[in-house]
Amino acid sequence: MSWLTDYVRPKIRGLLKREVPDNLWTNCESCSQMILVKDLRKGLNVCPHCGHHMRATVAERFAWTFDEGVCTRIDLPKVVVDPLSFRDRKRYTDRLKDERAKSQLDESMAVAHGKIGGHDAVVAVMAFEFIAGTMGAALGEAFVAAARLAILQKAPLVVFTASGGARMQEGMISLMQMPRTTVAVQMLRDAGLPYIVVLTNPTTGGVTASFAMLGDVQISEPNALIGFAGPRVIEDTVREKLPEGFQRAEYLLDHGMIDMVTKRADLPAMLGRLIGLLNHRQAAAPLRPAA
Amino acid sequence: MPPDGFGGGPGGGTWQDSWLCYPHGMRQFLDFEKSVAELENKIDELRHMSGPDGINIAEEIARLTEKSEKQLRVAYAKLTPGQKVQVARHAQRPHTAEYIGTLIQDFTPLAGDRLFGEDKAVIGGIGRFQDLPVVVIGTERGSELESRLEHNFGMARPEGYRKAQRLMELAGRFGMPILTFIDTAGAWPGIDAEARGQAEAIARSIDTCLSAPVPVIATVIGEGGSGGAIALGAGDRVMMLEHAIYSVISPEACASILWRDPKLATSAAEALKLTAQDLLQLHLVDRIIPEPLGGAQRDPEAAIRAVGDAIGAELPDLLSLSGAMLVAQRREKFLVMGRDGLT
């Protein structure tokens, strides 16, 4: 269990630093209006004109979610690298190396613990910027580690999802992360701990069809694309025009697949409230979950 | 008869170009079986010949038969991953319904998910396997155009996976082992399926399968296509027929994404390690069931018997364990997949 004790204390401020200086302008990817970069950052990467939620980095998620942005990142267990010796137009090992250099992340999921609304919580964040947030053995390992840490701390697990699906370069090992992460959810369930999923844009494929749809509470950011098959695959298969708003968060809400659509700015308060209500047994210490 | 052009599923179908049909009875040959097809056609012709030199004809038939069997043996001993994909999707391989028909006595189909509808892409019910009451669930592709449409080519909608969950729960309540048969290009990627929560249905199906307090034996009999397959695949034992494939994505779709060229599906098939032999080595499946010479499609009855024997061999060990023990062991098995044991 050395990964639990080898804490890495991140310097949030340092991680948040970006290459683009604050005084530059950028365009909203949805409404194309000009936004001052400084304003965009202050506004949690949400367009002040149209409310479009742009992508967030792992460091930003942790900073926005935990009380005062204070958290402790955990070192994740190492896994076998490139188990299939996969090579497409590029070697998978080279791809991993390049992605690590580019994103300064080890893999497509990072885990930290801290307080949300005054309650202990473990948070796992998926990094879409790392090979499209695809799920391989390392992500499975990270998710299992997050669940184990939550159980150890009797804390809830909150996961922010963002994924293009399976990591093809890991073949069937990638597919097997679906039952694997599902077992981790079952471990939380057995321990009587809340498991909250926050779906962010986009979440598709094997991630949606496993741990991302098994939350006790399912939240989504506005307009996030959420589905099993990608829209293009569906269009190619059924040869029909997809309905307006298809596979968006609001569509899933209408179809009974999620509990709520919550704006980014309101997420910490909502998470704090849900944790306070659901994890009451841990707060009241002596009460033990029914075995 | 048209070749099984649907083999590729969504985004696929490029292999259909390589199909060759020879008029040998109703048998469909694959491109790499060309020389065997020619020999068998010759044998057929000889059989229809009659004359004073009948004895010589019999000798010639015996000689050619031996030759064609030898060629089959050689070809099937070293099938490439690309060829395995073709064999696994062969239209004349036995389907789930045929396995049930032979292996399950008193089979009683049960229908519907009790929530929305009845999805015939997943068939299931109760019956007896070697006198033991069991629950059987499997994806069914259908065998000719009409039944393929009826079964949606084995590509299930959420209702199919929710029916599977219902049957798994029923199995748990009544202490009946669960046998699943997997043969699907994948879950149906349609508007209706997404609207009714395809992802949730698959996730919950895996969840339910992992929690069943009874033995679960999953067998990939043809094509194990991604999420649509793993929904029925989280078993205590996962078995594959010798020439079956099991993959996270179809080689065609993988090629078009990673190589930007669906024609490179053969390269993708090799890279994905989707054969039974590769997956056994990776410890992701537990047993390979040998197929008759020339694949299950040449002798469906023998293939079905072999699967029955394998299930019969695996069941006693599992039946000796308590429900709680089975669930604990099953979870542990999937919990370590990708962590260790990979060579």
TrEMBL record, chain A:
Its EC number is 2.1.3.15. The keyword Metal-binding applies. Zn(2+) binds at residues 28, 31, 47, 50. The keyword Endoplasmic reticulum does not apply. InterPro entries: AcCoA_carboxyl_beta, Acetyl_CoA_COase_Trfase_b_su, ClpP/crotonase-like_dom_sf, COA_CT_N, Znf-ACC. Acetyl-CoA carboxylase is a heterohexamer composed of biotin carboxyl carrier protein (AccB), biotin carboxylase (AccC) and two subunits each of ACCase subunit alpha (AccA) and ACCase subunit beta (AccD). This is Acetyl-coenzyme A carboxylase carboxyl transferase subunit beta. It comes from Gluconacetobacter takamatsuzukensis. The gene is accD.
